[in-house]
Amino acid sequence: MDIAFSSIAEIAAAIAKRKISAMEALDAHLAQVDAHNDTVNAVISLDREGARDRARKADAAQARGDVLGPLHGVPFTLKDMHDTAGMKTTVGFPPFADYAARQDSPVVARLKAAGGLLFAKTNVATMLGDWQSSNPLFGRTSNPWNLQRTPGGSSGGAAAALCAGMTPFEVGTDMQDSIRLPAAFCGVYGLKPTEHRISLAGAFPDPGGAARSVRLMSCLGPLARNVEDLALVYGIIAGPDDSDTDLAAVPVEKMPKVDLKTLRIAFAASIPGFPVAGEISAAVENLARQLQEAGAIVEQAKLPKLDPHDDLEQGGVLIGMMMEAAQPEAPRQPTSVSRWFEALARRDTSILAWDRFLDAYDALLCPVAMTTAFPHCEPGTPIRVDGKDESYRMLPAYGAVFNYSGNPALSMPCGQDREGLPIGLQLVGKRWSESRLLAIAQAMAPLTGGFARPPGY
After folding, report:
1. The CATH number of the domain where 160 resides is what?
2. What is the pLDDT of residues 255-265, one digit of tens each?
3. Which structural domain, as residue segments, surrounds residue 234?
4. Active-site residue 305, yes or no?
5. Catalytic one among 6, 21, 45, 79?
6. Contact 114, 107 (CB under 8 A)
7. I need a surface site. Which of 131, 183, 382, 424 has the fewest CB within 10 A?
C-alpha cells in the first residue's frame, strides 16, 4: 500500500482493519514532507510531536474497541486561515505571526470529531489576497509539477501538499477561484460549494474580536485527489452549526450514482471577453465530444445575457466594501449603505440568470482559469497566454463569476498541456446541488483521467 498517495477511504479502511496503524499513516505523510517540503515549501507550522501523540491515542482507542469515525487515524493539513486551538493561524501576515485561536473553528472541530489528525498548516498568499502563495512569514510555495511555476493561490500550499503526497485532503477558501485555480494548477480536485453551505465561522484570524465582515461570495470547500474523497470531506464539514447564522438549513445529501446517458451538459470553451489558452479550450471541446459519444446530451452553451466583466467588477465592489467594513475607522455614511444595497441588487440579477440557465442543464462545463500554472512573478505582472500578455487580474475570472452567482463549482483534472502541466476544467451546478455535481464529476472521471502523480514524488 502506497500510503502517501492512497485515498482517504483506503487509509481509513486499512487502519480500521489493522493493516496499518494511525502512526504509520502519519509517518508516511511526514516522510513526504521531509523529502520534498524544502523545495516545494507547502507545509508550515508542523506539529510533528503533537501529531504523533494524537496518532498513538488513535491507535490506543482502536485497540480498546472504541467506535471509529470515518477519518479515524487519517492525518491531514489545513490551509493557514482556519482557527485551530493551540496551532498558529497567521494568513501569512506578520501582525498575526504569533496568533493562536483559543478554540477550533466549526469545520476543524468536525474533522477532528470524525477522527482526523491535524498535523500542520499549509502556505497561503498574504491575507489570502493573491493567486500565488507567497508571504513574508513563510516564503514562496512552488508547484510540484514544475518548481519554477506557482501552485496558484490563495490555497496554493494546500493544493501543492496534496499533489505531492504530503496530505490526503485539505480544506481551502474560495472568494475568487482560490480553491479551484490551485486545484487546476496542481492537477487535483477542488470544490467550491454553494454560498452559505459550509460555516465561515473561525475561517480567518480574529485577535481583536471584530465583527465578521466576510459574509458573501467566500466559501470553504475541500480539495482531494479523487471525487469520492471530495464527497467524503464535504459531507463531514457541510451543513448548519451554531456559529454561522448565514448557513442555510438545506439537507446535505450523499453523492448519488448517475449515468452519463441521463445527463444534459452545456459547455463553453470560453466566456466572451475572457482570455483562455487554446489548449484549455480544446480540452473543454474534447471532453464535450467524449461525453456526447458516451450518450450524454451535450450542447454548446448560450450563456446568460450578462456582462461577465461587469459581474467581476461588481464582485470586486462587494469584496472591497466588506474589507472596508472590517476597518474600525471606516466611515458609516448613508451613501455607503446605498452603494451596498445597489451592489446586492445587481448581484441578484446574476444569481437569477444563472438559476434560469441551469434549469435546463445538469451542469455547465467550462475552463477554471485562462492558463495552466504560470512562472513565479510579481503580483500584477502580465501573464502570457498563447504568446499574448493578459491582465493579471483576469487569472480568477472563470471561477469568480460563480462566486458572484453563488453556484457550486468544482475543478477536475483533465490531462496536461504541451509543457506537461495539469489542465483543470470546471463543472458548475445549480445552487444547493453539490452532491449531484460531485456525482457528475465522478461519472466523468473515466474520461478525464483524474489525478496523476507528478514525476519524482
Report:
1. 3.90.1300.10
2. 999 999 999 99
3. 3-448
4. no
5. 79
6. no
7. 382
